[in-house]
Q: What sequence folds into this?
């Protein structure tokens, strides 16, 4: 399906679920973007989940979001259980405005929900020639180092910077060996997951996606990954007033209440300390790309390059929708 046609369809579905036209368009844009950058785990496969949560009244389709300006640089947002895309859209835009005015924009958001890809928001700041860091917590998936029970989310860490060319540097990575969304997609379509990324509920290694979802995901780099997950839980949960310490509800399985996810956006002007940042970042990337390469590598890539290439390639063709997800979309559109 063509990008614009798909956006209109997704927006129409959200409007049917009582979102305003503006909020529906924000959500549709984010979901289609995930498909275009090659991250279907955060795209159309989640549409039914968002609609289910609206129907179960654990996402508020008509939130009265409150915005509190603490200083010229700092803003606090209570999302009032809005869909995460909307709260995050407001948040990153506020952070960008503050950064342009004062050099730094810091926005903390609570009472929000899953907001899709962190890189999607970082890129908005980078496109305004700003540096960005984004943090958000997630439902329990990873056990703290030394524990046998999952508690931390896959808690992504995201960093973006302008690069002096049209391809931004965007590092957007979960702190788990594999994205939880990929496991959900695998479970949905009956595919196995790679070995070494998850344990079942008995603590045994598994390649069964459904067993992995009920078990524990493994963090990157052992105790270091566990520590990074904890850091994100503090920054986006404890610090903002959001849920933390394993209290974020699973959006697919737990409809007992809102998620109260926290997000934290930090946006900065790149010339706060040096006037020639553009020249320095260009030199930094050039120096690394000139390093000797192993035989199988044609080019040393920086984070964001592959994603940008996928996006440009996918823009030129129709978005392929798996049959089971297309069925879900058609049912949602028929409501």
A:
């Amino acid at each position: 399906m063509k990008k614009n046609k798909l956006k209109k369809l997704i927006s129409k579905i959200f409007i049917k679920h009582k979102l305003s036209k503006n909020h529906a368009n924000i959500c549709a844009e984010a979901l289609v973007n995930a498909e275009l950058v090659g991250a279907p785990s955060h795209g159309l496969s989640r549409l039914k989940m968002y609609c289910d949560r609206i129907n179960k009244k654990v996402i508020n389709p008509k939130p009265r979001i409150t915005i509190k300006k603490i200083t010229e640089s700092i803003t606090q947002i209570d999302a009032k259980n809005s869909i995460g895309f909307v709260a995050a859209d407001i948040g990153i835009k506020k952070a960008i405005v503050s950064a342009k005015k004062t050099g730094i924009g810091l926005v903390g958001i609570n009472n929000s929900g899953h907001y899709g890809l962190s890189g999607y928001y970082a890129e908005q700041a980078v496109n305004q020639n700003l540096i960005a860091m984004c943090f958000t917590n997630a439902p329990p998936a990873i056990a703290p180092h030394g524990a046998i029970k999952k508690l931390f989310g896959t808690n992504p860490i995201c960093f973006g910077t302008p690069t002096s060319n049209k391809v931004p540097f965007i590092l957007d990575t979960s702190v788990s060996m594999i994205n939880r969304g990929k496991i959900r997609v695998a479970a949905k379509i009956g595919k196995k997951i790679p070995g070494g990324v998850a344990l079942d509920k008995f603590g045994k290694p598994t390649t069964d996606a459904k067993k992995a979802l009920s078990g524990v995901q493994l963090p990157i780099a052992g105790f270091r990954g566990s520590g990074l997950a904890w850091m994100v839980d503090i920054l986006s949960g404890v610090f903002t007033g959001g849920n933390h310490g394993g209290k974020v509800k699973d959006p697919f399985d737990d409809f007992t209440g809102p998620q109260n996810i926290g997000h934290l956006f930090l946006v900065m002007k790149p010339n706060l300390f040096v006037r020639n940042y553009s020249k320095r970042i260009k030199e930094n990337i050039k120096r690394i790309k000139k390093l000797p390469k192993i035989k199988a590598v044609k080019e040393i890539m920086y984070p964001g390059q592959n994603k940008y290439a996928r996006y440009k390639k996918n823009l030129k063709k129709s978005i392929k929708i798996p049959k089971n997800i297309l069925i879900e979309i058609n049912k949602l559109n028929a409501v």
User: Anything to note?
Assistant: The longest helix spans residues 84-102. The mean pLDDT is 95.
